[in-house]
Design a protein that fits this description.
4 helices; five-stranded mixed β-barrel; alpha+beta; about 35% strand; about 170 residues
């Protein structure tokens, strides 16, 4: 009986520590709208709910809001941006009030859900670029993924395979 109680207590602690994604990030909206479609026909999509994500380019604070410029990427089912996937379009994630720029470092992955409020034109170099603007309801900054360039060396392979810490073939 004691073992069962310990198991239940450990299970409750472990599930309590798991981070929970906001519902609007974890599940896509009923109508999936791409940022490039909004660039082409902005009036069609005003007021629609979207879930977009990608890599942060820069943060700009204004008096009433904070704009986070994002390079839009394809999303996994849970809303996580896929690294090195095809670029959809750049967009502005607009947060109400002041947001600390250090909380949105360049190159980190961000997913936002919110309402489309229009398109603003800003220059990318000398090119005028139409940025769809999302009034953010919820957001999630994704932790860095660990990349392994090689498999870890397992030192307990039998030596008769011809490799390993004990070396050599058995003959």
């Amino acid at each position: 009986m004691r073992k069962i109680l310990y198991f239940i207590a450990i299970a409750m602690v472990m599930t309590g520590c798991a981070s929970k994604l906001p519902q609007t990030i974890a599940q896509p909206p009923a109508e999936v709208i791409s940022a490039s479609a909004v660039q082409q026909h902005p009036e069609t999509y005003l007021g629609k709910q979207v879930r977009w994500g990608g890599e942060i380019l820069e943060v700009a604070n204004a008096e009433q809001h904070t704009d986070v410029l994002v390079v839009g990427r394809e999303l996994e089912k849970d809303g996580e941006p896929i690294e090195d996937s095809k670029v959809d379009a750049r967009f502005i994630a607009r947060f109400s009030g002041f947001r600390e720029p250090a909380d949105f470092p360049e190159g980190k992955r961000l997913t936002v859900s919110g309402t489309l409020s229009g398109v603003e034109v800003h220059n990318v170099g000398e090119f005028p670029y139409p940025y769809p603007v999302v009034e953010v309801i919820e957001s999630h900054r994704w932790p860095e993924k660990k990349h392994y360039d090689h498999y870890p060396y397992y030192p307990y392979y039998p030596s008769y395979y011809g490799w390993g810490p004990y070396g050599g073939y058995p003959w």
